[in-house]
Write a structure and sequence with these properties.
- Keywords: Membrane, Transmembrane, Transmembrane helix.
- InterPro entries: MFS_trans_sf.
- This is ADP,ATP carrier protein.
- By secondary structure, the chain is mainly α.
- The protein has one domain.
- The chain is built from ten helices and no strands.
- The protein has helices at about 1-15, 20-50, 55-85, 100-115, 130-135, 145-150, 150-180, 185-220, 220-240, 245-275.
- Helix 6 (about 145-150) packs across helix 7, helix 8 (about 185-220) packs across helix 10 (about 245-275) and helix 9 runs antiparallel to helix 10.
- It is globular, with a radius of gyration of 21 Å.
- The two termini are about 25 Å apart.
């Protein structure tokens, strides 16, 4: 987390001191960095959670744990929307634009570091005997790469994540192109996406608190993962048929609610079996 805070400081300084051409490269680099950061930070959190819960516990609790992330998303979206409507574009902030929200991100990451100091991972969840508790893990750093090709479950999950990431990236790039054609004002675009997050969060919380556990137990993880592919395909068809900002609003809301409410808890449940 400290490493990412340093990254954010570099982006902030670069945006403040570079000319327009330099800022264009900063913006492109930040987009790529932001996607890598999102995957990395979320993965680190879920790795910790996976080590705390067995598979049957994950199906019961991961929806509620995901709800905490949804509350954080709603808070961040509210801050971004207030900034984009009340602060962005004013005389004092017009030069920095939405990029100054990085300061908020740095503060939030610093708080996360402080809170994580009291988070102590356990050596095992429910040891059956002393030997199981004291058992040491063997192997080398290459074993995870070998398991991608040797273990069918790991290979299938890896392929699923690659395909999911590819299709989601294509969908997101199409959505961004539609929004850029709709408005050239960065403050207005920031407010639009912040509003989407404010819509997504309460819907996701309802799913995580009341529906996710039931779906995972009764319908199954495989059905959730397969359904997401059909939803992504329908979203791309909608973009091609009706390339307007209203379509982006509806499609992004559906995709994100399903992702955070069902698909992510389903994927993480699989990892509890693979650990």
């Amino acid at each position: 987390y400290l490493f990412f805070i340093l990254n954010l400081l570099c982006f902030l300084l670069g945006w403040n001191f570079l000319d327009e051409a330099g800022r264009a490269w900063i913006a492109k680099a930040f987009y790529i960095w932001c996607n890598v950061y999102s995957f990395f930070v979320v993965s680190i959190f879920w790795v910790a959670m996976i080590n705390f819960f067995q598979s049957h516990e994950a199906k019961k609790y991961f929806g509620f744990i995901s709800a905490g992330g949804s509350l954080g998303a709603f808070t961040g979206a509210s801050i971004a929307r207030y900034y984009s409507t009340e602060v962005c574009g004013t005389a004092s902030m017009s030069d920095w634009g939405p990029f100054s929200l990085i300061i908020v991100s740095i503060v939030a990451l610093s708080i996360a570091i402080i809170l994580s100091l009291g988070f102590k991972p356990t050596t095992t969840n429910h040891p059956n005997n002393k030997e199981e508790t004291e058992e040491k893990l063997g192997g080398t750093w290459m074993d995870p790469f070998r398991s991608v090709f040797s273990a069918p479950s790991v290979k299938n999950l890896t392929l699923y994540i690659i395909l999911w990431t590819f299709v989601m990236t294509v969908s997101w790039m199409v959505a961004l192109d539609i929004i850029q054609n709709w408005s050239s004002d960065p403050c207005e675009r920031t407010a639009f996406f912040a509003r989407i997050e404010q819509i997504i969060t309460p819907l996701t919380l309802i799913c995580q608190f009341f529906i996710t556990a039931f779906i995972l137990r009764k319908i199954g993880v495989a059905a959730v993962l397969i359904a997401y592919g059909f939803i992504l395909f329908a979203g791309l068809v909608a973009y091609a048929t009706f390339p307007v900002f209203t379509t982006v609003l509806v499609v992004v809301c559906i995709l994100r609610v399903f992702e955070y409410g069902f698909n992510k808890p389903a994927r993480e449940t699989i990892f509890t079996v693979l650990k």
